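Look at one such:
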Amino acid sequence: MSRVTLESLSYDKAADEYDAYHGGLERGRKAAEDLSPHLLPGPVLDIGLGTALVDVGLRDLGHPVLGVDIAPEMVSRAHDRLGDRVALGDATALPFASASLPNVVMVHVLHVVDDMERVLTEVARVLQPGGRLVTVHGVPVAEPDDMVGAEAPLDVLKPEVPDTPERLAESAERCGLRVVKEAAAAPYEITLTPNQYADSIAGRVWSYLKDVDDATWRRLVEPVVADLRALPDPDRERQQTWRVPLSVLSHR
């Protein structure tokens, strides 16, 4: 997330499907409810806001929201929801003055940045003394079902998650932040058909697929797509339950 690159363009490509595969506004509202009790009075900056699903929920709960994202198409979609309170922005060079914000949130973002400690250092710069960073960690884990089983061969392509609670706590200490609370975000449910899941994989919606080479794609990914489409009733919706940890950090 340090500059507009082919990576950001891949998120642009995913913008059309982003809402559907992230649970839509209802999931955004539930995420906002998880974040809200940990926030201080005043503005909330969302880094990597996507299409502003969570931010609509925060706004509806009474929080003044601001947002930045590296992908122009994501920012365009977010602008439709929040207007001029969103901007194209770099997580390592935020367009805000030092010690100017009481709150920063990041939802499923730290695991895809190039340099987590560089981002945390920048967050510490813009936070006021005692300000809060609330982050929902890494990649959510779905409870087992037939789609999870069919997709399991792709686990070898998924990078080690850098923002586990333990790793985040260690990095935060080096960047002027400290963990004040660890919790679990409320589990959430997504309704998806096997064909929709297959489409999301074939379309490289998920970040771990964006750089897969052609040979690996043919060997690993195409059989998984085929297996998902071969599941019984592939157009029947399945309700998946996902779980993920949440950490609250304070600027020292």
Notes: The CA atoms of residues 34 and 168 lie 19 Å apart. The chain has nine helices and ten strands. The first helix runs from residue 6 to 21. Strands lie at 44-47, 65-69, 86-88, 101-107, 127-136, 141-142, 177-184, 188-192, 238-243, 245-251.
